[in-house]
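Hey, resending since the last one bounced:
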Amino acid sequence: MANFRLQGTRVLAVDLAGDAVKAKNGAMVAYDGEMTFKKMTGGGEGLRGLVTRRITGESMAVMEVRGHGTCYFADRATEINLVRLDGGKLFVEASNLLVTEPSLRTGTTFTGLRGASQGNGLFTTTVEGTGQAAIMSDGPAIVLRVSAQTPLVVDPGAYVAHTGGLRQQLQTAVGWRTLVGEGSGESFQLRFEGEGLVYVQPSERVTVGGQL
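The structure tokens again:
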């Protein structure tokens, strides 16, 4: 089984003993031992994944890394966060996904206006099953718990990923004042309800909502 270890906060070390991981294409920065690299395509496996990618446009260049030794991964010095799934599902933008264990299945799901408000399109990537995944954030991410008693509101530009049984709702405050250039600056917000975890980065991407 692959062993994920953080080397600081911006490099992921994965120990391999003849097994493999799926990683963002080009994310290898160093390795020791014997490794092979095979280009794959993200967004879901098999024929269904191929069709899904064509329809949604949600895909990432992925490589399979197999071998004996330690492989080190990083991407533009972004912060790396480890997520362990025990039969659950992770929702994350393809651009924020660095490495997954091969036991995890990837796919896509419709996000509707939430994705559009983030400027990431109408679909997002899902990672499902049991194993570890490494996701990236612009700065150290905080992990905020959502419960039935404590719903959470997040800026779409700071949202990175979430797990658990969460319902999302896009809140808007767009009115006539927005149209005349007197918006609040927080015209779009994501509200999470249910039980789960939300990963939030200390940096806001440029989004449609952030311009209003």
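The chain has a mean pLDDT of 83.

Sorry for the duplicate.
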